Amino acid sequence: MRLLHTSDWHLGRAFHRVNMLDAQAAFIDHLLTTVRERGVEAVVVSGDVYDRAVPPLNAVELFDDALHRLAGLGVPTVMISGNHDSARRLGVGAGLIGRAGIHLRTDPAACGIPVVLPDAHGDVAFYGLPYLEPALVKDEFGVHQSGHEAVLAAAMDRVRADLATRPPGTRSVVLAHAFVTGGQPSDSERDITVGGVAAVPAGVFSGVDYAALGHLHGSQTITERVRYSGSPLPYSFSEADHRKSMWLIDLGADGSVAADRVDCPVPRALARIRGRLEDLLADPELECHEQAWVEATLTDPVRPAEPMARLAGRFPHTLSLVFDPERAPEDPAASYARRLAGRSDRQIAEDFVAHVRKAGPDERERAVLQDAFDAVRADEAVREVAR
Predict the structure, then answer these.
(1) DSSP tally for the chain: helices H, then strands E
(2) How far is Cα 82 from Cα 72, in angstroms, rounded to an integer?
(3) I need a labelling partner for 253 at 20 to 30 A (CA). Which of 137, 213, 299, 303 fits?
């Protein structure tokens, strides 16, 4: 069976100040063309269909159009909700939509109930694991630890239990929305850290033929059977080096996996440039970035006058301006920035405690801080569901 694996459409999201709806519509056109021209037999969309729980009307209209066109091709589609989606809203009408061959999987309780699609070699069982917010689903899965690994492992136990009841030779595909160990994040994914840990091991997906992952925006191969498609469009300058694509997966009769990348149309290249303003305006090597979306980091010791207007004279699509002035190593501002770089919210809080009282928190206090951060995350998740 030939599958097309995509995820993280984030319909309704802008790129800095640029409305991306036209680019998202062009991606949908490209996806439909790929399905027709490459003989795709099933499409899988691994979450974050929308960018937020209550998407704008034009994003809903684009999604509705995509569903009608996918159904019109007669190619089955399996979708799950991601951490940006409202699972309840995305899942409205799932039963009726399923009759048209569009299978929405947004209910964690249904993780062990597959969509079964046949091909010339037998059945392929598609298991949809929507984003599992640990604080909200741990009771459903009967786990005592409120971490991602615990709830995802419990969901996969249901998958393997159901698969064991299927006829011999039944192949299996899991759709999941999670941060798997070994994946490289970008700045445009919403943090899903719980208990100080966000990542789950790839081994949690053992026993299935292919795991189609969503959440991370870079296309990545964790193992030959565990892959991220990445987002089809860039949503932060941290994705400047990404190759935006989908995975074309051929699932053999014996469960073997062969993968090929299908590039996605990107409206404009991204570029990150850095240096003093006068140097950026004069450097001939930067000519290749003059029509790109640009993030410029200025290192001038003193902020120059009208930097954005002057940059736009050469780089008319400059969208982001960052100031990182060159400083002496002993400069307090420079050392503070270095101390914060790459540190989590919890680590910054612990550093603050140590700075105020000249002694860091003990184990009990660290646990209190972590519980506070987890409680805020859980409260945000509950409010997101209630919207």
Answers:
(1) 11, 19
(2) 25
(3) 213
Alpha-helix residue ranges (DSSP H) falling in 103-220: 134-141, 148-163
> 294, 315 in Cβ contact below 8 A?
yes
The set of residues, in sequence order, having a beta carbon less than 8 Å from that of 284 and lying 6+ positions away, is none
Residue type, 31: L
Mean predicted lDDT score pLDDT of the chain = 90
Give the separation between CA 136 and CA 383, rounded to whole angstroms.
Answer: 11
Beta strands in the chain (DSSP E): 2-6, 14-15, 18-19, 42-46, 77-80, 102-105, 115-119, 122-129, 171-177, 179-180, 199-200, 210-214, 220-223, 226-228, 245-251, 257-263, 270-275, 293-298, 318-323
Digit-coded pLDDT (tens) for 35-56: 999 999 999 999 999 999 999 9
Structure tokens at 153: 């492992």
Q: How far apart are alpha carbons 241 and 269 in whole angstroms? A: 10
Q: How far is CA 94 from CA 32, 102, 110, 334, in A?
A: 21, 8, 12, 53
Structure token pair of residue 248: 């074309």
pLDDT score, position 189: 74
Length of the chain: 387
Q: Decide the pairing of beta strands 226-228 and 220-223.
A: antiparallel
Starting at the edge strand found earlier in the chain, the sheet holding 293-298 runs 270-275, 293-298, 318-323
Closest CA to 283 of 291, 273, 292: 273
Gap between the Cα atoms of 276 and 282, Å rounded: 10
